[in-house]
Amino acid sequence: MISDSYKKILVSGTILLFVGTGILPSVYGGVKGNYSGDAISSLIPDDSLLDVQYIYNITRSLSNIVYTEYDEANGEIAKGREYGSKGERKAAEILAENMTKLGLFTKLEKIENVPLAAGCSKLTHKTDILDYKLVITDKNSGIKEVVDCGPCPSKIGPHGKLFRTSYNFSYTGLKIRREHPNLSESKEDYVLIYGASYKPKSGDVTCGGIKFYLSCLKNDLKSLRKYMFHPHFKGYICFDFNNDTHDMLHPDIASVSGPLFFINGSVGRRINNSIDDFTVDFYLNQRENKSAISYNVIGQLNGTDPSKTVIVDCLYDCWWDQGTADAAIGMGIVMGIAKYFTDHNIKPKYNVKFIGFAGEEFGMRGALYYEAVHPREKIIYVIDLNQVGFKQDYPRLQLEVVANKKTFLNEIREVVERTDYVNRTGNVTDLKLSYLKIGHISDDRIFAVKRPLSCNTVCFLKGGPWLLHHRDGLGHTEGDVLKYFDPLDVAVTGEMVWNVTKYLAVDETL
Questions:
Q1: Whether the model pTM is above 0.85
Q2: SS3 for 364?
Q3: Among candidates 346, 284, 354, 335, which has minimal Cα distance to 77?
Q4: Domains and their CATH numbers in the chain
Q5: How far apart, in whole angstroms, are the C-alpha atoms of residue 259 and residue 256?
């Protein structure tokens, strides 16, 4: 949470921080991570340019927020760094304190509603889940089991009322079906169960989440058309292809035809194999929040030509998980680059802003806000990081470097390839450089779309069939978690991003 000393000033929307406490030792006890104390130091390559231990410490502090800021034992929902949550605000405080310790001119910029493009003006509006539970009952033994799950709110309430977010649902003894019955056939309340329709395959370089969500939308539209007013249909249960994790669907991309619960594969398959042996109880309480509090975190290093700005950024929010790879690691690398500047007393040619953008998972809200309220700032480059620096040997992934202009991509190609990323990381991940006029599916897209002529953007994102993308499980110990932090990949990726930053913001030489 934002400390008491900040609160009076934060009402105005921004603060200036002149002193910082650094990274608190108590955050790094090694209890939740894959490494303890200084054990990670033995895994850092000797030729690492950036301070990987520092990057890891930042990553761990952000990842552990799902544990440190919520009292799950007393029923509080651990929402990680979800947009507008106290976990996200704690992350903002950690980043601001450490930016200040590095000597950056630091401020927290509060996100407000601003007149943007149609449909994007309500940046502080969101759906909050207040309480939920999913229980299955074995009809043969009478044993009840509380199921680890990820809930998704519904845009449709009981009796077909549409598109409100204050509905509460509570049902017991629901039958489980694989398909909708005919209207005249069903006399019992029921839920539908189905498996994740997308299974990543080797060589498939499309984000699994997109295919999966499109499949969910297809199911939603079918249900909306045929069964929206079905008196006995009460919601969905979707089980994952991973045994120990469940997916998490963005609360503002809610199901339009009923509440939706994601569960892990082992429980889901057990139910699906014997649907007549189980019944389901669930409740879901949700409300519309029109005043979510969130901040972009900005640390500035002044250059010799202050008329132009280079942004080096990453999202720092996540879903109800540790959010390590998506994208605490990327945020750590941004901080590591800032540290390299200050450790070596490097004076950039242009102003460099190191930014942690809030609310990327909620439609890139932090980037939308920043671009809208800085219309006169001459932003010439945006260097954006997203999901990078994590382990997955199979299926094979690829580090995607995506620029918004072909000429710009060709300009930085040699700088990127000089890192020799594939060979140095053990040849388990490909490297792909590509051009996309609208930018990647990340915060860089806002600048690529809204400032297509004046701003060059590049995004670094490890894409492809990432099996743990947006996933959580086993008390936040599985899914997108800290144990998949890869010191070697972080070192090489960080060097690559530094090389691009140096070329664009410092001396423009190879």
A1: yes
A2: coil
A3: 284
A4: 4-12+39-121+291-507 (3.40.630.10), 127-289 (3.50.30.30)
A5: 8
